[in-house]
């Protein structure tokens, strides 16, 4: 579907349960953001995560392939490849150990679930370990992120045309780059704000591989009830803003996407 890769895969009623309060471990927040805690939009801190809590499983502690300089990690996981309901967890490293930063957050992924072999036009979310792109984007003003931020204007596209030399990159153009390319400024509310997940782009690959897939973002739900996507990771607006503000390029954050059964690959 041209120009609608992420907006409207509404396959279920909701994202499962109401989003828990963001934030938890003071130690983790201090390591990850240099702030005393990670507050929700209402200013209420979650008491549910204790310092160093590793139950029911500190998933970040299972990871083996993160760069040594990485001090923040997002884990997006689920119970099977086919399930498009997922959970997003955030961790920060302090004194060589990973600490949970927030309560687990409800998320949605591609309508056909996870894939180890994502291809262009197939609504799956690619598994792997990825960086956060060097620029964050959005149709609204900068919500206070640490990354460079570009507010979208008419003519801002994500090039998703496998035959283009600019495949899988931001492009400002007066004409549609073709293929599945997205008119980013028209994607509301999904692209109120978003971060780029570096699937099929640097630094994961030197040059995007044609037809391997493009435009994988972390963005907000397209509907108030929450909805599956065409490959991106989606969360509520409130949770997205908190995550984007927390991410710090100086701490080399990574995002790990995988069914839980295969998390030990990474």
TrEMBL record:
Signal peptide: 1-30
Alphabetized Pfam families for the sequence: YkuD
InterPro entries membership: LD_TPept_cat_dom, TAT_signal
Stretches assigned to the L,D-TPase catalytic domain: 107-250
Keywords: Signal
Superkingdom of origin: Bacteria
An MF annotation (GO) of this entry: transferase activity
Keyword Signal: yes
Protein name: L,D-peptidoglycan transpeptidase YkuD, ErfK/YbiS/YcfS/YnhG family
Organism the protein comes from: Micromonospora avicenniae
